[in-house]
Amino acid sequence: MDEPLLYIIDDDLISIFDIKIRLHQSSYKHRTKSFDNTSAAFNMLASDYRHIDGVPDIIMVNFDLEGMDGLAFLINLEKNGLLSDKTHVYIFSIYGVPEHMKKADGHRLIKGWFTKPISNRDIENIFSNYFNQGNSGQLRAM
Predict the structure, then answer these.
(1) May I ask the CATH class of domain 5-140?
(2) Could you write out the DSSP letters of every residue in the chain?
(3) Model pTM?
């Protein structure tokens, strides 16, 4: 399997930096693009530039973004045909309240959710889940 393309979408630049460090510490090879808002990520996927790298294999998006939150972003991508059925989406939030995440539960592309800060173990689980597609269930971490 090729190196997966991973999108990180969060308005907290420190969080993006932390996730990138954890990704770098991972044993899995990958390509990463980061965005500080959902509009920038949506515009990238809606533009012709998406053909350079393709559709992301894994999207990690903050649920708590201003404007178009993580779930609205996902619905908008899907509505416009900008995601693959094989794309794995992971939602994360600074709030670890399960009721807060229930909006996202049950969506076919969402493979799991995490509470910030994301750990090295979370990153390993995301890659493991991606590379073993169909062999593992949804990830839930608190």
Answers:
(1) alpha beta
(2) -PPPEEEEE-S-HHHHHHHHHHHHHSSS--EEEEESSHHHHHHHHHSTTHHHH-S-SEEEEETT-SSS-HHHHHHHHHHTT-S-TT-EEEEEES---HHHHTTTTT-TTEEEEEESSPPHHHHHHHHHHHHTTTSS--EE--
(3) 0.86
